[in-house]
Amino acid sequence: MMGDLERVLLTAEEIQQKIDDIAQRINEDYAGKDLVLVSVLKGSVVFMADLMRAIRVRCAIDFLAVSSYGKNTTSTGAVKILKDLDMPIENKDVLIVEDILDSGMTLSYIMNLMVVHKPASVRLCTLLDKPARRRVPITPNYCCFSIPDEFVVGYGLDYNEQYRNLPYIGVLARHVYA
Ligand code: PRP
After folding, report:
1. How big is the chain by its Cα radius of gyration, in Å?
2. pTM exceeds 0.90, yes or no
3. d(CA 128, CA 101)
């Protein structure tokens, strides 16, 4: 798979170090609260698995699956829920866990949707942020890495459902998708 990459952007060690730092902040911010981590499938599963094991405060976990709105077409930002939350989040402190914040459309939709269920709070934790691509104003509360606008895969992120199993994040070589 290395031949499909232009270069490694973030090593497994760099990612783990940053997750430990972010988890430390989460531990402080959520001490004594009723935390529910909500992972948005599928890209965030690897990040979720590492982040939750670095978090030391009590928490529950849940998963959401949403349909992709089709990034290459003009989008209304409409997102379809394919799998809703299993547990009620009323009065809970919800932390959405995502792999990447890009246009912001998916996440702003999800954050608005959460609010309907009357949680005590809703915040966003993203592994990667591509601020250059933003179309909707949304800022993550916790962000591990702000990255340039390049096609990245690995550590949960895919191209055509492949490369999610890479333990690091790499820039996909142009010949793979061009
Ligand atoms: C990615 C990511 C976010 C969304 C971000 O999911 O996990 O959900 O795109 O993009 P946006 O900021 O432009 O809305 P994707 O649709 O690739 O699905 P996946 O997680 O199953 O790979």
Report:
1. 16
2. yes
3. 6
Residue with tokens 């402080």: 28
| Residues near ligand 1 (Cβ within 6 A) | 40-44, 68, 98-107, 158
126 C-alpha to center of ligand 1: Å? Answer: 11
Residue 102 among the catalytic residues: yes
Let me know: does 89 contact 117? Beta carbons within 8 Å.
yes
Mean pLDDT by groups of 10 residues along the chain of 178 residues: 92 98 98 97 98 98 86 62 96 98 94 96 98 95 98 97 98 94
CA distance 164 to 43: 7
Cis-peptide, bond into residue 118, ω within 30° of zero: no
Which of these, 113, 114, 110, lies nearest to 92 by C-alpha position?
A: 114
